[in-house]
Amino acid sequence: xxxxxxxxxxxxxxxxxxxxxxxxxxxxxxxxxxxxxxxxxxxxxxxxxxxxxxxxxxxxxxxxxxxxxxxxxxxxxxxxxxxxxxxxxxxxxxxxxxxxxxxxxxxxxxxxxxxxxxxxxxxxxxxxxxxxxxxxxxxxxxxxxxxxxxxxxxxxxxxxxxxxxxxxxxxxxxxxxxxxxxxxxxxxxxxxxxxxxxxxxxxxxxxxxxxxxxxxxxxxxxxxxxxxxxxxxxxxxxxxxxxxxxxxxxxxxxxxxxxxxxxxxxxxxxxxxxxxxxxxxxxxxxxxxxxxxxxxxxxxxxxxxxxxxxxxxxxxxxxxxxxxxxxxxxxxxxxxxxxxxxxxxxxxxxxxxxxxxxxxxxxxxxxxxxxxxxxxxxxxxxxxxxxxxxxxxxxxxxxxxxxxxxxxxxxxxxxxxxxxxxxxxxxxxxxxxxxxxxxxxxxxxxxx
Length: 448
Description:
This protein is mainly beta. The chain contains 7 helices and 30 strands. Strand 23 (330-340) and strand 24 form a beta hairpin.
């Protein structure tokens, strides 16, 4: 296995000047040919630009925006167009302005404004909450789901705080208009919306995943049984898969049929855990774990999204406290546990096994107390390549640039096979990206 360490500053001399007052961020955007990194203002954390690396030849281009963006929301790789938004106050409203940036002809323009709440109403709300500094309204969901549509969901604010409704907007960039819908999300009802995510199937289509219920699996298992019967409704859960194009059509027609797409409801005696992965969705299937809190029995269920049929999967694997991943038709689990050995070392146990339990890889690794790793970030490297990274000193979330010691481990060995200290100070080690350069030759790039 061969890993080359690549520093962004060494790919372009201008990056040294760019990073004097800024820092690199990460982007939740997948591209086939490029690695995209946002450039963040170190004091405001707003995006002031973007750099993108051509993986094939390691050429780096940097584009600094004419206007700072609060968030980058989409990259149209075919047309080399980036989309983002920024908050602004205009016409007595707190608004979100969507902006497009063509990276080829360097054309930037505001393309749409979304009114979120009246300014006076929002200022009164902040005053009632005892908040002296102006902050923007929170968003439950804001995503550009494809090159045509943006969906945003937030609290519908009224003069009185007694209402609990979601304001849903579907923005059609082709028609240059938006469609509004108000959904009653009264927490007194058994199934208020608590979480929304978009799962793409293709560039144009996918599913809106909607989680209902006021607590998650860990909370439910911790506080079960409810103290009285009046509390049981707060322990009920459900989830739905709403086809994207149908969701958009229904919002446009002012009719939302959430009940029709609810996959399963559970009482206070069961909990849900979901496979947080988009690969299975591309094959139109979804996996989740349904656990009986009474019997402690967990079942793995496969949902066919073509016809919404469910199948209980037979597996010899203990499903509790494991991360599941779907890749090339195979379901794999990862389990991690840490045991303190002494005041200087921890023992990390990693196990990777396939659904039928016939193929397992396990390793025990001694880590120093200083070594840190984020499981959510490293799972994909463990699953795809049998690799994971640690860094030290521990990240303190103040974004103070410092040199980090990086170690790369393999499931084939209990010791690090690559160890180095970063050449340049990093604001955050979480932007380090492992990229597969050659699958046949087992070559990787570690881009920092």
